[in-house]
């Protein structure tokens, strides 16, 4: 068997399903985000209802699919790359934990009168910089997601499709990291650079992974 480990039929189906689910949810998220941003009178405004609630639900729903996708990547990875694929899976799991906790908190606690009436409400729950919610979102997507992509990228080699996945994973991770420029500069418009990495480029990565697992040989 050499360097390649056994990629089971179950793992192959799991990879196809999780990649397809990720693509569908990312497309729904991207469309909702575009509509929400287009409705703003000023770029400095946060996205309002009902778009923000739809985005929150989509993000929470998306995270299990993204973690499952990286589980499939780890299952497929050759022995020599297992350390890298496992590290990628850990960072994606960290993203899921932070993101699901954050957005569930916003969906539930932030709307309770005990919290909504407090003078510090916006500093904790809003997506206007600076706030606790915004900082956690940045840690999740601009750091944990970026690291997950950068560690997963070297796993893929050998075919033209694998090479494209590797290049686009690197691009997705680097662009997501570039969103940190917004924090350094104190300009959240610059932080939106990261959205291109973890929504736009990653959407293509997930679609290619669906094709990759569909073509993969299984035992």
Q: What is the element layout, followed by pairings?
A:
Blueprint: H1 9-38, H2 51-76, H3 82-108, H4 113-116, H5 121-125, H6 132-152, H7 160-178, H8 181-185, H9 188-191, H10 193-215
Helix pairs in contact: 1-2, 1-10, 2-3, 3-6, 6-7, 7-10
What does this entry look like structurally?
With 219 residues, this protein is mainly alpha-helical. It is 75% helix and 0% strand. The chain has ten helices and no strands. It has helices at residues 9-38, 51-76, 82-108, 113-116, 121-125, 132-152, 160-178, 181-185, 188-191, 193-215. Helix 1 (9-38) runs antiparallel to helix 10 and helix 6 (132-152) packs antiparallel against helix 7 (160-178). The radius of gyration is 18 Å and the shape is elongated. It starts with 8 loop residues before the first helix and ends with a helix. The mean pLDDT is 92.
So how many helices?
10
- Could you tell me the radius of gyration in angstroms? 18 Å
Strand fraction band?
A: under 5%
**What is the general shape?**
elongated
The end-to-end span amounts to 12 Å
Number of strands: 0
- Which spans of ≥5 residues are poorly predicted at pLDDT below 50? none
């Amino acid at each position: 068997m050499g360097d390649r480990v056994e990629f089971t039929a179950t793992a192959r189906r799991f990879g196809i399903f999780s990649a397809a689910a990720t693509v569908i949810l990312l497309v729904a998220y991207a469309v909702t985000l575009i509509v929400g941003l287009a409705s703003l009178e000023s770029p400095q405004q946060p996205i309002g209802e009902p778009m923000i609630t739809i985005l929150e639900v989509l993000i929470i729903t998306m995270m299990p699919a993204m973690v499952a996708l990286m589980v499939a990547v780890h299952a497929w990875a050759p022995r020599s790359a297992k350390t890298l694929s496992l590290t990628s899976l850990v960072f994606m799991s960290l993203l899921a934990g932070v993101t699901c906790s954050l957005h569930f908190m916003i969906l539930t606690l932030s709307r309770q009168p005990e919290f909504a009436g407090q003078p510090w409400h916006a500093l904790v729950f809003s997506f206007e910089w600076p706030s606790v919610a915004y900082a956690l979102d940045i840690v999740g997507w601009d750091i944990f997601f970026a690291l997950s992509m950068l560690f997963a990228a070297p796993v893929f080699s050998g075919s033209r499709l694998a090479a494209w996945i590797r290049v686009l994973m690197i691009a997705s991770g680097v662009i997501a990291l570039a969103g940190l420029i917004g924090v350094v500069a104190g300009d959240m418009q610059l932080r939106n650079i990261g959205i291109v990495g973890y929504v736009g480029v990653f959407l293509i990565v997930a679609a290619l992974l669906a094709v990759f697992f569909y073509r993969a040989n299984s035992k």
